[in-house]
Amino acid sequence: MSKNINTIKTAFPNFSNDLINEIEANSSFQSFKAGDVIMRTGQYIKSTLLILKGQLKIYREGEDGEEFLMYYLQPGQACAISLICATKNQTSQITAKVVEDVEAVTIPLTLMDKLMMNHRSWYEFVIFTYRTRFEEVLEVIDNIAFRAMDERLEFYLKRHAKACGCTTIHLSHQEIALELNTSREVISRLLKKMEQRGLVTLNRNQIELLM
Amino acid sequence: MSKNINTIKTAFPNFSNDLINEIEANSSFQSFKAGDVIMRTGQYIKSTLLILKGQLKIYREGEDGEEFLMYYLQPGQACAISLICATKNQTSQITAKVVEDVEAVTIPLTLMDKLMMNHRSWYEFVIFTYRTRFEEVLEVIDNIAFRAMDERLEFYLKRHAKACGCTTIHLSHQEIALELNTSREVISRLLKKMEQRGLVTLNRNQIELLM
DNA sequence: CTGCTCGTGTGACAAATGTTACTGTGGCTA
DNA sequence: TAGCCACAGTAACATTTGTCACACGAGCAG
Predict the structure, then answer these.
(1) Which residue from A minimizes the CA distance to B62?
(2) What is the pTM (predicted TM-score) of this model?
(3) Domain A3-144: what homologous superfamily?
């Protein structure tokens, strides 16, 4: 096995060897730097990305350039939107931005149907991806539909901590405000209250979660 | 062809005859009355519904029983959630309520994989359903994330009119308030403003769209 | 050190939305 | 007819969130 095949196998342990070989033979490896925008709203989708390393965030853009975080993509995952949109010449409904330097496999959309038909493990992966992302998006809807900003902030912090696997969050209040589509002052205010309730410790560019 | 097969063919013109025969042989027809709740949050999904007639609404429930409308299901459609969740013994994340008396085909989840593998037209239907529902949900997110209640109300009214194919909406302010997760007074207020702007005409239990 | 930028804290106020309370009106039924 | 109920209108007020203005301190560049 080549190094690349091993990398795929590690990130996607459920893929059959056949599947990995076919992917390996028909796709390319790509790297992206933190801050890169891989996919933009309105852009045509020509391929699907399998994430091997790093982290992406997927968000929805408002008309005036507001951002709204939907979910993070990590190694072993793929963008649900691209898995499906890719089948018909569709434009992207979301924006994908690199959070930590990413290494990924690019699968051309022309291969998608073939993989789907010939590889059970690919089919299961697609279905699983769709289901989990749909659930995640439903949870996002819950948050904005039913919860006030203080709860949404708590949820956001926890999710972020989970995504990076640590309890210290290195984000400015401004960045958080952007992702929750509110203003810095509101976040400052709410974080202060959380600090008073003993839920967090605040420092410059750093929030320590105590929950 | 039996009457039922004809009905399926009419509502789902893209289904191949083979596919329809297989569905016909392995599934049952069911009717539901307006007001029935077909699927509840937390319930196990044991089958998928293909809608032949009538109308369903799919919504998300909050912890305190709030409702939040996601989309309508109409003839020729199926619940995206059930198409996917059905593959693994999953519980429903949403609630489905009958708006107009429904006739539907119930497909047991055990059949799903087989249909997916053997029928191209089923595969395409599932992918199409997923994609369009995901897009619809993204639009819903846009609305609650980026727009104020007045715009959301306009969007809601237009969508409702589109769903029933007419410009007169027979809903009380209270019902609208529930689906947008706000209070009746707010809806009354906003509708009054819309009337003053000449966008609607208001009558008891009736809103006439002029846009 | 000085001056600058960035991130943060905070008060004052505006706007949107949620809540409470009360009114009126149409239609139904006893 | 009287009484009841669902629906709608609206005023007054509370709460949440957004906006503006300004101050402070850490850290960096000159």
Answers:
(1) A146
(2) 0.89
(3) Jelly Rolls (2.60.120.10)
